Amino acid sequence: MLSTRLRQIRSHSEALIEGLEPEDLCLQGMADASPAKWHLAHTTWFFEEFLLRSVPGYTPADERWRYLFNSYYEAVGERHPRPQRGLLSRPSIQEVLRWRQRVTQALEEHLEQLPEALIELGLQHEQQHQELLLMDLLDGLSRNSLEPAAYPSGQPEPTDEAQTSTEPPRWLSFPGGLVEIGHDPEAGFHFDNEAPRHRIWLEPFAIAEALVTNAGYEQFISDGGYQRPDLWMSEGWGLVQQRHWSAPRYWRGDEEFTLSGRQPRNPQAPVRHLSWFEADAYARWAGARLPEEAEWEVAAASGSLQQAFGCLWQWTGSPYRPYPGFVAAAGAIGEYNGKFMSSQFVLRGSCFLTPHGHARVTYRNFYPPHSRWMASGLRLARGVQP
Q1: pLDDT per residue over 74-101, tens digit each?
Q2: Taking the chain, what is the end-to-end CA distance rounded to the nearest angstrom?
Q3: Half-sphere exposure of residue 193, counting CA atoms within 13 Å on the CB side?
């Protein structure tokens, strides 16, 4: 029921900050991240801006908040600079939480008269920000030499089924040919970038059954993977030298930093927090490549892949571009995905921080190739002779 989902999703966002300090909620470790308080406010702004402002008698929040919590919707108006979101000590978290409750109540009261498709988009949008809140929080806390734990009693982690000892990988072969990818219009909600469904030609290919593990990635490091320019794209090699990359983002010796603080690193767990450049370099070192997103979708739809969902977002070799026939929606909502179809790569699947029910085989996530604070991993692919 839509009203139940609305209450559950809105409440879950608030549950994510239980036990955190007000200082934690204003933390912005880098320009690409946002404070937890901003995520809570922005998702509330989204519902108010695109749904409740049209309701007779509804009184919006302070108009100045409209500037503070707009993310990138140029059609709505000017917005606070993204790199400065960590400076927003006001409104306080208590004011934001009161606003959230008022907006949730208004949505429930007027649910029958509001467009269901737009409500669903708002809920899916909030679930995206629940995942982002956790990844951004991890980045911010990791920069503190005290290595504070956001959730000392434990955090979401991949299940035991997400672990594998298959080294080298077991390969699954597919014949390729003319295949269909993209969202089926009869299959319920999807983001606009998942459509339209279309045909594409694939050469025969093989894809690894499971993700690359920490142990597998350690072999790459031991073999001088971060010292060999021949394995790297030029831009990636420049970042290795400039930023002194020598391991995945949160590795600390034989341990890694998590939302539960520093933890022992499991060699059989999938390696995570890799940039596209690192994933691509590893694949080249392994004599393979990253899968194209169409290959990933075909393999995942077959049910053959381990760790396709709920483990790690998986880098593909596909630039983030519109599908043939893609048309962005009119107005500000059309800015949701379409205008970012440049200079980024597609990730597929979902991760252990992705909210339940938010994953789909056609879901297209996307990030710039240098990004590695997300819960991202890799799966190998290669061509095969027909």
Answers
A1: 999 999 999 999 999 999 999 999 999 9
A2: 48
A3: 22
